[in-house]
Design goal:
Elements: H1 4-23, E1 35-40, E2 44-47, E3 56-61, E4 72-79, E5 83-85, E6 88-90, E7 96-102, E8 111-117, E9 120-129, E10 135-138, E11 143-145, E12 153-160, E13 171-177, E14 181-183, E15 186-188, E16 194-200, E17 207-213, E18 220-226, E19 228-230, E20 248-250
Parallel strand pairs: 2-9, 11-18, 19-20
Antiparallel strand pairs: 1-3, 3-7, 4-6, 4-8, 5-7, 8-9, 10-12, 12-16, 13-15, 13-17, 14-16, 17-18
């Protein structure tokens, strides 16, 4: 049996050893998932139908804000008809999961997505812009070309991308053939994809036209026959035959209305 003093020293030694063993266990492990937040990838701007430059990253944390690994996160589209890949990911050691976002095909529609883990969710938004110009279409036509300022017409075209979205700031060049002038000779499309120029027909050539070009797209052609401007008095009757029927422009100012009868 040890003397009383030796036993006391031995007990003190054992107690110190147990205390050192507790320190070697390391920091506490994360607890249960308590929140999910958008870590990065939100508020981006991309082209319709294209993948955003940065992936969407969601982070799952416990009640103390520590990342929780091994948690299933579902990524879903809330608005905008886009695509998320993968739709399901598992958080890594830092509690993060990610997915790539392909924009929807309509620029005017809000783009929203969310990440869902357990009963928690985080939201992401993005802005979709129109793609490269793919189509040039005529919005107005001419028919009859009436010479002079009184017969000037506004010619309108619209530029859209592959999905039919309006393309703004696309350059359109205008050129008249067979006489007449167009002003301006160059115009840019507005936010609705439309560009306008005013055509004043010449008084010499029977057939005149204007070409609108937004390279490298096929041009839009406005063709017209040189016409005659007419104004009838109240109850006046005018009979047109043969070539005179081809192209007539009747003034409609002052609420004027006309009755047209066609006979063989």
């Amino acid at each position: 049996m040890l003397p009383r003093s030796a036993a006391f020293l031995r007990l003190v030694f054992v107690g110190l050893t147990l205390a050192c063993g507790g320190d070697s266990a390391g920091p506490d492990k994360p607890g249960a998932a308590a929140a999910v937040a958008a870590a990065s990838g939100g508020a981006q701007t991309g082209t319709v139908g294209a993948v955003l430059p940065q992936p969407l990253v969601a982070k799952v944390t416990d009640a103390k804000g520590r990342g929780v690994p091994g948690i299933a996160v579902t990524f879903r589209i809330d608005a905008g008809n886009g695509i998320l890949s993968p739709a399901l990911d598992t958080t890594d050691a830092s509690g993060q999961a990610q997915s790539s976002w392909t924009m929807g095909t309509t620029a005017a529609v809000e783009q929203r997505a969310s990440a869902v883990a357990a009963a928690f969710s985080a939201s992401f938004t993005a802005t979709a812009q129109a793609g490269p110009a793919a189509t040039l279409e005529k919005i107005t036509d001419v028919g009859c070309a009436i010479p002079g300022a009184a017969g000037a017409r506004d010619l309108i075209v619209r530029v859209t991308d592959t999905f039919g979205n309006a393309v703004s700031q696309a350059r359109v060049d205008w050129a008249a053939t067979g006489g007449g002038t167009v002003t301006p000779a160059t115009s840019n499309t507005a936010v609705d994809g439309r560009a306008t120029s005013r055509w004043t027909a010449g008084g010499t050539e029977a057939s005149q036209s204007v070409t609108a070009t937004a390279a490298p797209l096929p041009a839009a052609l406005f063709a017209a026959q040189l016409g005659t401007s007419r104004t009838l008095a109240r109850f006046e009757v005018l009979t047109l035959t043969n070539d005179a029927m081809r192209c007539n422009d009747f003034a409609a100012g002052g609420g004027a209305r006309y009755l047209v009868t066609v006979t063989n």
